[in-house]
Design brief:
Helix content is about 30%, strand content about 15%. The chain is an alpha/beta fold and about 325 residues long. It has one domain (about 10-300): TIM Barrel, CATH 3.20.20. Strands 1, 2, 3, 4, 5, 6, 7, 8, 9 and 10 form a 10-stranded mixed β-sheet that branches.
Length: about 325
Amino acid sequence: MNFSLPSAEYLACLSNCVCCPRGCRADRFHGPLGYCQTGAGFEIASICLHCGEEPVLTGRTGICNIFFSRCNLQCQYCQNYQISRNREDVISRKLNLDQVARQIEEKMDQGVKCVGFVSPSHVLPQMEMIMQGLKKRGRNPVFVMNTNAYDKTERIAALEDRVQVYLPDLKYLDESLAIHLSDAPDYPEVASRVLREMFRQKGPELKLDKEGVIESGLIVRHLVLPGQVENSKQVLRFIAEELSPGVYISLMSQYSPIPAVAGDTNLGRHLSPEEYGEVVEEMERLGLEHGWIQEMAGSGHYKPDFARQHPFKE
Ligand code: SF4
């Protein structure tokens, strides 16, 4: 099946790009490219089944995740650095919309219900084209937006009827960390606005189907960084006090140092059980009872390798 050309809105967005808060105004068709170094096409690192996520997302079969190449944040410690760096070669394949849709359909034919877009903030027009393309093929998966939360609030508002599940990764509410670690001084302000908008749309409850697979809702992820316990507590306080203690949280201990931060006092090591315990205690103290607390199992267990065809399989 052929897809119709992208709408004028997409073309306008990509030719003078203000898709994300960086607001580069780059012409992504002709260059020069903007901060994310991403053109107007579908540059994809992997479309794969992932079973190691929160059980409501994976169900029996796993979630079909689409990992886009590059990112609008450049976190020093990025756990997916093989695909996210903007100034280095990354794992990336240029596909067309039909090829993307077919790969997703293959997974859906195996019983997959959820289709996740991972770090899509710099490719929202492409994400929307994929959603539209699947709908045109008669497919109605649960769309999951797994974003770093460095998004424009109006863009999230526009997705209200199209994205069923928001899975934001709330990184920091500490401005100095946002500057130092992610080159985004306004991250705390932007991300907290985005989270409020997501909460306005979805509220604290998750809607599940008969098999316990999510149909709609908001799950906030937070990766605890070594040496940054206070930031994690601040993130949890924001969720409990400014959204609701009923929000589902996925607290993650899986941080693993990457080569770029080797030697850094904090980022160059793993999280300690004491640090994680302190954050878990704060979660309990705040009455945040919904969600998942990852165990302190070996962090290597969760580490993907995008050089493999199946990045999450050993
Ligand atoms: S999506 Fe990329 S080009 Fe567009 S504003 Fe953001 S960083 Fe700049």
